[in-house]
Design goal:
The structure is a homodimer of 303-residue chains.
Chain A (H helix, E strand, L loop, with lengths): L3 E7 L13 E6 L2 E7 L3 H7 L7 E5 L5 H4 L2 H10 L4 E7 L3 H12 L5 E7 L5 E5 L3 E7 L7 E7 L5 E2 L1 H7 L6 H5 L4 E2 L5 E2 L1 H4 E2 L6 E5 L9 H4 L4 E5 L7 H6 L5 H10 L4 E5 L9 H10 L3 E3 L5 E3 L1
Parallel strand pairs in A: 3-4, 4-5, 5-6, 14-15, 15-16, 16-17
Antiparallel strand pairs in A: 1-2, 1-18, 2-3, 7-8, 8-9, 9-14, 10-13, 11-12
Helix pairs in contact in A: 3-4, 10-11
Chain lengths: 303, 303
């Protein structure tokens, strides 16, 4: 069963174009939505792709460049217009508080919806954990403090082997404890070891997000073995010097990172507007890492 | 010759929808562009409709509700990315300075483009005058301080009557002074009165913008006889009470204002998202003022 669904709301770099919106994505996991970055116009994209704001509790902002955060105030305002209640936590570099709070106080009523801004730890670390999903941040290398995020299933339970339950006639009420590791003791006192009753859990699925960053193998430990990796690929490798100077990556470099980190699949985005057709970027990435694909507005990936 | 061209960038109310963008318009006059309101996503719309940011010197913000100003920071950032130089003046309610300035200072380099925020006079008045075009602001009635704007040609010169120039054999170098009102004295000393040499100037063309406001005849002196009037028409008149409570207007009320002010044409906008098809609003307006039309993104009107 595929638990994650990623929806791309925007994958342009620097500014919106006729074709692309600035960075924003929504990751869905078991009914909960997690937004990653929130460029200008994100609210329009969010509703365009049928997402439900009542399921959204956390927004993760990678860094404070406008194309990754200018959509926050409009999105929050609109949530209030929709009478969204409760709390939304924005995990962002610490400067966001003094930039966004005065706007929230001026433009939004603040009567029903609480916005909490949680500063990202400067060196990265665990920033969310609900017992089944964990989010960690880690430093990227960009012109301002920038963070990648890894979303990972945790505490996955083993699968009950139905045939054994029937063979030993195990009462249904005991199944949760068996999932948690208990042995089964038959009415006759025989101990059936837990290992006979369950098969290993489905491997944990994970998603890693890396934008914006120059090529840096220092991120590999953080994204190692991710099921899906989003990595920025602003330029073709022929512009490697430009990429380095502006702290961005080329498509080839994104693929090198994917390969070294042994991820399952690579999704590239944050395209420079100079590429009218991004297949050139995809082709470059595929030469290094064949399981690559292009981000695009409205793309949904289940994994 | 039609000197004005109005381009609608957005005409939704409160929030963007799948169909409409938040309020923004650009008025072009003799090569200069004037932006009126700047809702979220305006930058994308501005370039979508082929407008040239080098021609833009002034932005007029009617009031500080997000759907009329959230696009400013993104637009300014992108102007800097495009290396736009010089100065842009934002005419806006005075609170904008302390809301927008910290963002400009944080997100924009500020090295080449200067942003000056000119507070609108609380009671309205002349806010721009370049000798051929004058802009005046006037108070509307909304939940926060809100202003309408009137753009009007001034100091229009009379037309030289070509046949008289030929008859009296007037040297070309004297035509500017004749346009300015001088008589012509022939080499023989005969005085040809100015009135014989020129015909009256083309009547001044003007544009009035009224959004957001509840129905208030107090604005009529300010918009009297405008060639084109944009007036908000958020609701059908069956929601008159809602309109009044929220300080908005109905389509019928917009048309009543147009009729009383004896404008040439009425353009309605700022549509509530409840109307999937705005022709119902247009039909209502036309019952009162036949020369009415609907705003829509990308609409261009020359006048």
């Amino acid at each position: 069963m595929k638990e994650f669904e990623l929806t791309i709301l925007g994958c342009s770099s620097a500014k919106p174009t006729r074709k692309h919106h600035p960075s924003s994505q929504v990751l869905s996991y078991r009914g909960k939505l997690f937004m990653i970055d929130c460029g200008e116009g994100t609210q329009q994209q969010f509703y365009r792709y049928g997402l439900n704001h009542n399921r959204l509790g956390h927004i993760f902002i990678s860094h404070l460049h406008g194309d990754h955060c200018f959509g926050l105030i409009g999105f929050i305002s609109t949530l209030e217009l929709h009478y969204r209640t409760g709390e939304i936590v924005i995990h962002a570099p610490s400067d966001l508080e003094c930039l966004l709070r005065p706007q929230i106080e001026y433009y939004c009523g603040g009567e029903t919806l609480k916005i909490r801004i949680e500063p990202l730890p400067p060196k990265g670390g665990e920033i969310y954990n609900d017992g089944t999903l964990k989010v960690t941040s880690f430093p990227l290398k960009h012109r301002v403090p920038t963070f990648g995020f890894r979303f990972e299933e945790i505490n996955k339970l083993p699968h009950i082997i139905k045939e054994r339950v029937e063979r030993y006639n195990i009462p249904l009420r005991l199944l949760p404890s068996i999932k948690d590791g208990a042995d089964y003791i038959t009415p006759e006192g025989e101990v059936i070891p837990n290992g006979e009753l369950v098969s290993p859990p489905t491997p944990s699925v994970s998603y890693a997000y890396c934008s914006d960053t120059k090529y840096t193998p220092s991120i590999i430990p953080y994204i190692k073995g991710a099921t899906l990796l989003y990595h920025e690929a602003t330029y073709l490798h022929e512009l490697e010097k430009t990429a380095k100077k502006r702290y961005h990556s080329t498509a080839l470099q994104a693929a090198q990172i994917a390969k070294e980190a042994e991820v399952g699949e690579l999704l590239i985005g944050h395209f420079s507007s100079r590429y009218k057709e991004e297949t050139v970027l995809l082709n470059e990435a595929k030469q290094e890492f064949v399981n690559s694909r292009l981000a695009n507005e409205g793309l949904k990936i289940k994994f």
